[in-house]
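User: Please predict the structure of the protein below. I'd like the answer in structure-token form so I can feed it into my own downstream comparison script.

Assistant: Understood. Taking the following sequence of 579 residues as input:
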Amino acid sequence: MTRFFAVAPLGVAASLFLTTALSAEQWIQIEAQPSLTQATEAARGYAGELPNVVGFNLPGRWHAIALGPYETEAEAEAARRALRAQGRIPGDSYLTDGSGFRDAFWPVGVNVSTLAPVEAPQAIEAPTEQVIDAAITPVELDETPAQARASERQLNRPAREDLQRALHFAGVYNSGIDGAFGPGTRRAMSEWQAMQGYEATGVLTSRQRAEVLKAYQDVIDSLDLTPVVDDVAGVSITLPAGMVEFAEYTPPFAKYTAKDGSEAQVLLISQTGDEATLGGLYEIMQTLEIVPMDGPRSRDKNSFSLTGTNTRITSHTEARLVNGTVKGWTLIWPTGDEKRHQMALEAMQASFAPTEGVLPDAYGDGAAQDIDLMAGLDIRRPEKAGSGFYVDNKGTVLTDAELVASCAKITLDETYDAMVSASADGMALLTPTESLAPLAVARFDSHLPRLQSEVSVSGFAYEGRLGAPTLNYGLMAEHKGLSGEEDLLRLAMTALPGEAGGPVLNSAGAVIGMLAPGSAVVPEGRSLPEDVAFAYDMEKLAGFLSQNGVAMAASDGSTSEADLVSIGRDMTVLVSCWN
């Protein structure tokens, strides 16, 4: 044997020495570092205080600092306890037989096979303490660290992987599920022990392992993740059967509603269609109350995903084209239950698969018919909606300032996002986030119509429910307000709140003012006749627009009644405030 080592390459000889030494003794692993530089510095620091410090490379990129070798596990454990009590090694140091160690990097050139076993520590006489007569509840330990490590060795790989999953669920483990209890798993165990008030040894006892697994299993049991094959919808997926149950088919959805007050919901999506159908569904889903506005969205020609979150729910939708059909699903979950939500979401994402069959458009009795519903689901409506009108060819909109105050989101015609670029004296200017090309832009006339001549207001009297503006006719009653305000026009007209912000037109279709909300003009506590309305006059509008860089276009003459309707419709825009 000696002759063999004499002629063998140094690396082989060192490896054989290492294997022989490590398989026979015990070591105390103090810590592990991700880089060789950090590990060398740590080993050098410990070596200044302790004998027999050895640095080993670990599988992957980690490096261990260890003490040893010790002849028996009992001696190693006694040394670990003594050194930890003296504060000379970390509390999460643990014993190992060294089977995971590879070649040594510290001290440089060390021959591990020649290291003599470390002598067992001498018993330290405990100092005399004053005994206080008090009732103390003893802490029952189910296993010593040595016993815990011994019982841990009995775990097979599936059991080790289950424990890693449970630690991941507990929020302390973020590495791979591989069944190998390396530095990452040990740190997770120590962190869990510290969180629960246990001594952070880095090795879970049998009872502690049972606690970790039970917390994880209780959640799994409450979810009752169950494979479901819905032959009508043509979808196979794992659902949280403990939280939802099948309710009905309302094309294009198979609905699974909350069970036992869980507040969770699932929709399975199934309909015949193509790329246009997929795109339409993508737009429609975003109008539903079950898809909050805040959250990431992504779409390509074959699939889309939608995530929305508010203070009440989190919603996630995925859909894709499959052989002439659109198949997908939506998970709606109450906020504040993130761990269970994530587990259910991951199970659905991993298991979703289209099968034969597609939900017919007219399946069963269908959903309740209502313009505020889509397949029986509430369509999200703005907090308030009113009127505005285009004042330049870039799509800039003039509207009522009160309408767009304190809005989380503003849209034009419920399609284009816009922001308030200026606001003053009851007026607001909206700039779309993308350039628009309006069908018509306001043309202004500084000449006021004669008293008692006909005027009209173009606006969304019913706040968008009709889908287009209406023209409301009245008379010019006075060129000032009731209290003599010079920048107001009084109209003999019955106006609705949704028309505020709409343009006031003369008989030629020119803008002579903007309808003002009654709340901005009428003193609080006063009630005026129904046929009294007010508008900001052209001079006031001109000053505001000029101050904000908008060049006003002048009117070019008279127009017919039919043209008046067309002009009003094309320049007027629905302004919606979302919260």
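That's the full token string. The first strand starts at residue 26 and ends at 33.
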